[in-house]
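re: that chain from earlier
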Amino acid sequence: MLLISDHSRSSQSGFTLVEMMIVITIVGILASIATASYHAYIRKTQMMTIYQEINHFRIPYQILVNEGAGVTGFSPNGLNMPAQTENCQFTVIPPDVNAVTTDAVVCQIQNLNYLTDQTLSLDLKTDGTWHCRASDDISKSYLPQDCQ
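^ sequence. v structure.
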């Protein structure tokens, strides 16, 4: 009787080194794409927060314009608004009655190292509408639709 060893019939199972390297490469590529998308999402969210903060100035500013407030009323304190938040240092200037008031409300962005020395501002047009403007160095992909 011929005995065949179980050892000779068994086959190896598992992954080869090349297969493992391919899987690791694919996982690395997917992780880098996810990380980049996450950072872009965070930056868009931060810019939207800043935009919302500066928009809080519109109504108090317009009320002072309608009431004919003097130059001293046009400051964050005069508008009963904070002069500073976590991401903004605000400045407010009085309106130019017969022209566009450029930089009526300005947020000097702070505490965001990728936006050092950048601003987001609101301009008041002669018809009473507002226009949002951002510094040239802020990527348009991060800005809210109203600021592009």
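Residues 17-139 form a domain with the Glycoprotein, Type 4 Pilin fold (CATH 3.30.700).
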